[in-house]
Amino acid sequence: MHLLISILATFCFASQAVPIKRHTTAPTTTAPTGAPTGAPTGTPTTLPPTGNSTTAPTTAPTGAPSGNSTTAPTTTAPTGAPTTLSPSNAPTKPTDAPTKVPTVNETVLDALKYNTALTTFYNNTMGNSDVKLALEEGNVSVFAPTNAALKALNVSKIPGDLLEYHIADRVELVEGLNIIPSIDGSQVLKVNKHGKVVDVTYGFPSATTSAFKTLNTNNGIIYVIDEVLSAPQAFEVTAENLGLSTLLALLKRTNLTNVVSTLNHTTIFAPSNAAFVAYLKQQGVPDAASLKTKDLKKLLSEHVAASTIYSTELFKLKNLTMGGKTWGISGQTIGGASVTNANVLLRGIDSKANGVIHVIDRVLGAGSPAASSTSGLTGGEVVAIVVGVLAGVAIIGYCCFRRRKRDDDYQSAN
Asked: Pairing between strand 176-181 and 167-169?
């Protein structure tokens, strides 16, 4: 009987302890099994055994479906992670975002648009359908003046022909001189490359500016410059700008000014003012007015070639014929004259052709100015001296011959 009472007491005690045991283990059996290790630390598994089970869910991660372990990973993501992240609203890849920095995958027009220092030039290109098309589809070299360069000239609207002069065919620049035709073929740009330095020289006034930045694109190269280029001008304007007043005066006297100015493709070897002074002194005349008009016309015609010859081509030749006179070319000289200012660009009369001036330090065929200035002798005086020397040599030779013959006759007689 005592044994039966003990068993019944033990059973009653166990039945009262079961709810307490179930209470303490319930949260661990219903907690998400796949929760991230970084889940909030207030999960039910850490509650004190004496805690109230009704408060356990309030400390679980917000939004966690109760009792559903399959959605636990997304609802218990680490703090700060987007809870609704999906491919549709994920951050855009950096390569897809606008960079506003020209890359080789952009056209020239795109690169101009993205560069805030070139907005004025870009706006002008957008207003010219031919230029816009060339920048989008052509293969070009663009010499783009900055906003500051255009503002300095108080220019916001660039005339169409001048705008096109800033755009040339794309070429791989060689070291030294490069002559590049503009996109419409009417004019050329003179570009000099020295290592990484690129200089462009333009026609009027004759000036040079360096490209301080280069932008490469998939259909061309942009050379950023701080000057607005000006197209080449006609002969008279260019010669005056070069200070060739004596040449202009002689052309006017011989009525050749209009002839030279209307040439479309021409090369003019233009003696400097000092070269003409030295020439007149060599000829023994006080001034150009003392020269006969016929002789002066012939002299000037011997300085004009009927084709455009840049220095890169000129000094590869052995000779060049102008006005019926052939001049030898050696090194960097022609007809004994050195070129002191080469490849000054000219515009033809119809604005669709070009020419070039090479300034030289003496009149072609004339003696060295340095030699003439020290000797002070005219051409006639030089000839007289030569003839006198030859005559003297002949007289001395004759005297020697007579004396020898006399000695031979004396010996024969004895």
From this structure: unpaired
For 75-122, the pLDDT digits (tens) are 444 444 443 333 444 443 333 334 445 455 688 999 999 999 999 999
384: part of which helix (H) or strand (E)?
helix 379-413
Name the β-bridge partners of 359: 270, 341
Strand-pair category, 267-271 with 354-360? parallel
Mean pLDDT computed over every residue of the chain: 74
How far is CA 347 from each of CA 158, 310, 326, 384, rounded to the nearest angstrom?
19, 14, 26, 47
What 3-state DSSP class applies to 52?
Answer: coil
Q: Rounded to whole angstroms, how far apart are CA atoms 9 and 250?
A: 143
- Side chain identity at residue 233, one-letter code: Q
User: 198, 224 in Cβ contact below 8 A?
Assistant: no
Average pLDDT over residues 138-154: 92
- Domains in the chain (CATH in brackets) are 108-225 (2.30.180.10), 235-375 (2.30.180.10)
